[in-house]
Amino acid sequence: MDRFIYQVNVNAMTALLVNELNTIQDRENALEIEAKNLQIEQLKIDRAKQAVKADRDRLQVQRWEILSRLQEFSNELYQN
Q1: What is the pTM of this model?
Q2: For 38-50, what is each residue's pLDDT tens digit?
Q3: What is the spatial distance between Cα 26 and Cα 15, in angstroms, rounded to a whole number?
Q4: CA-CA distance, 42 to 48, in Å (whole number)?
Q5: What 3 state SS string does 25-53 have?
Q6: Count of CB atoms situated within 10 Å of the CB of 11
């Protein structure tokens, strides 16, 4: 009888440990998925930052073009 109880206990403990290992593996998988999702979000953020920088650069060029035209116009006014 003791051998039977021992075997039941071993089997129960083995099942618990296997279940715990599976739970740990599930958590690891979830963390890997979350890490990949965060990488995707970071790429989106990086692209958005690049788009903002490109917009700022275009606006800066437009600003300088407008200032240049204003300077030319001002020069023409003073010459006339």
Answers
A1: 0.64
A2: 999 999 999 999 9
A3: 16
A4: 10
A5: HHHHHHHHHHHHHHHHHHHHHHHHHHHHH
A6: 10
